[in-house]
Specification:
With about 325 residues, the chain is mainly alpha-helical. About 70% of the residues lie in helices and about 5% in strands. Bound molecules: protoporphyrin IX containing FE. Protoporphyrin IX containing FE binds near residues 229, 284 and 295.
């Protein structure tokens, strides 16, 4: 009994040890694949280093970045925040313009047409305006497709058609940025002289620009509202161009972080810019009688000019010449 007992004890001890070892190993294994624990350590890594990087063998060291929390913030901005900003700015402006039109209707030439016209914008000015405007409209539509195409257009089209359209829209967006930028620079240079703020603008603004009631606050060649449009075009166009070129030419003096910031600036500026230009297009078309002709034929009716830009007419020598050294303006019968 005694002789048999020793090997049995050894065997029992070995079995016990094996069970304990298996238990310990499985516990350790369970611990090493615990996903929650892993995620926490990944989070700690991100918090400490702001990025998780691997190793690579190609010269472009940027490609070694595997994870960066700023990327998630940026994606949220692009897919959620910017869509809200665009919806509020553009639909908000459209709603305001519709309400205003229903309430006020077209601002008429109160004294009627005189039948005589005065040149307001020459051919070069009109060419620059329309080149910039056409580029802007295509840039705006192709840009809106980048932000809103997926949720709004894709459900209405075949995926292949949406892809083809988006590809061409992106080419248009990239290449038209160049003539648009040129247009903004030319607008800045051509019309800077007439767009420096003066005291007259304060009075014009206080009187609501004559849009309310039958008031006609005096203005030089550009009134305060047009000066605002001018500076929004120059500064907004400038900001959109600089941030846009940072995206077209990636990593020339920029990092992933500054490119994400450039995309945010580009998106916000563009959406606000589009909203403002909707108001400009409204005034230039159905909002005001006689305004479109200024950029269409280049000449406006004298009574339109008297009602909206009386000080400019004075400068041009039509209402008593202010500077006799200047030649008389081109005033023609008919319109
Ligand atoms: C269909 C689109 C557009 C129409 C119908 C339109 C119409 C007009 C008209 C009629 C004027 C002359 C106003 C006056 O006699 O004083 C004007 C001026 C001007 N436009 Fe446009 N425009 C359009 C788009 C644009 C765009 C997209 C831009 C720039 C991105 C732009 C920039 C300007 C600027 C800076 C002025 C001079 C300041 C002012 O009068 O507000 N326009 N536009």
């Amino acid at each position: 009994m005694q002789a048999l007992a020793t090997p049995l004890r050894i065997a029992l001890a070995l079995v016990f040890l094996a069970i304990a070892a298996i238990g310990y190993l499985s516990a350790a294994q369970a611990q090493s694949v615990n996903p929650t624990k892993n995620a926490v350590s990944e989070q700690q890594l991100l918090q400490q280093f702001k990025t998780i990087r691997g190793l690579g063998s190609i010269p472009d060291t940027k490609s070694y970045t595997l994870e960066q929390p700023a990327g998630r913030d940026w994606r949220h901005f692009h897919e959620v925040t910017l869509r809200w900003i665009s919806g509020i700015a553009i639909l908000g402006m459209l709603t305001l313009l519709i309400i205003f039109y229903l309430w006020r209707g077209m601002v008429r030439i109160e004294s009627g047409r005189s039948g005589r016209t005065i040149v307001r914008f020459n051919a070069v000015e009109r060419f620059v305006h329309w080149m910039t405007a056409v580029c802007f409209i295509i840039l705006a539509l192709s840009g809106l497709n980048i932000t809103l195409g997926r949720p709004l257009l894709l459900p209405l089209m075949k995926p292949e058609s949406f892809t083809a359209f988006s590809e061409w829209a992106k080419y248009a967006h990239n290449y038209l940025s160049f003539p648009f930028t040129l247009g903004v620079v030319l607008i800045f240079l051509m019309w800077l002289g007439g767009n420096i703020p003066t005291r007259v603008d304060i009075d014009w603004l206080k009187r609501g620009g004559g849009m309310v009631g039958r008031d006609h606050p005096p203005a030089y060649r550009f009134n305060a509202g047009q000066k605002l449009v001018y500076w929004i075009v120059v500064l907004g166009g400038g900001a959109a161009a600089v941030s846009g070129y940072a995206l077209i030419f990636p990593f020339y003096g920029t990092t992933i972080e500054t490119m994400q910031q450039a995309e945010m600036v580009h998106g916000i500026v563009a959406m606000l810019f589009i909203a403002v230009m909707l108001a400009h297009i409204y005034i230039g078309t159905i909002g005001m009688e006689g305004a479109f002709e200024a950029m269409g034929s280049g000449a406006v009716d004298l009574n339109w000019a008297k009602e909206h830009h009386t000080l400019w007419l004075g400068e041009e020598g039509v209402l008593g010449r202010t500077d006799p050294s200047q030649p008389r303006p081109t005033v023609a019968p008919g319109g």
